[in-house]
Each structure stands twice: as structure tokens, then as C-alpha cells.
Amino acid sequence: MSKQPPLSLTGARKGEVRTQFAALCYRIRRGKVQVLLITSRGSKRWIVPKGWPIDGRTPAASALREAWEEAGVTGKVSDTCLGAYTYGKDMGQRDETPCIAMLYPVAVTSLAKEFPESGQRRRRWVSRKKAARLVAEPDLGRLLVAFDPRPKRQPA
After folding, report:
1. Alpha carbon distance 107, 23 (integer Å)
2. pTM to 2 decimals?
3. Are the C-beta atoms of residues 50 and 101 closer than 8 Å to each other?
């Protein structure tokens, strides 16, 4: 299996569907999967860290960078995309920019107290089911519920 090459960016025009890369930050506590949600800066909705592609980085590396900037996450990201969800990004204009976010799992190893957006967001560990109820995007909710990084048991 080949590694994904870094991106080389060319800009999209206004009104086109834009791509973002999102991080599903998780940990396993007492055998249960927990997901880290953060608040958006504007409306304070519960979301996962996400952002625009970063020139010269893979999609997974871009997602990991957003997890650090928005949630203070240090961890290990997988190059395997879990799926995609759509939403409308408020760009400060009258209408929203349609976006598709590609979701990458990040196994969290630590959380920093201070990080670039620490004064602008809250973060919260929740179960996958609770996370699915808290986020506004139905497709993201389905991806959260379906996600399970624990090893599969082999039948006896």
C-alpha cells in the first residue's frame, strides 16, 4: 500500500464545494471508546476539529494539525479516511460555503492546557453515541457511532 503524497493546492472559486480535513480524536477508557468534541468559535456548537488543506501536508497530517490548533491534541493519526460528511461553513457572508469534510481518526496521547485556540473553545470527552447526538451534522453523527478502533474479537 502506498503512502498518500502531500497536497499541492490550487484555490477554489467562491461558491464551489470546498474540502476540509477533520480529526476524530479518541481514547479508550475502561474498555469504552470516548470521542473528543470541541465548540465552534462562533456559534459554540459541538464539532470535531477540522480545517482547510495545508499545502505540502497529507490530508491526515492536515487533520492532525487542526486537532493540535483547535483542541491541543497530540496523538497518532491514521492515513485511512473513515468517511466524509457535508455541512455549510459560515464564512461571515450572507450565505454558507458548502463543504465536505474527510474524517481521519486520531488516537490521543495527550492534551495540552495551552494551544493556539485554547481561549476560544471548550472541549469535552463523550461516548460515541452522545457525540452523535451533540453534533449537528447527521452524517458526522453516523460516522461517530460506527467508529470503533478496538481490535475485533475472533470467534472461538
Report:
1. 10
2. 0.86
3. yes
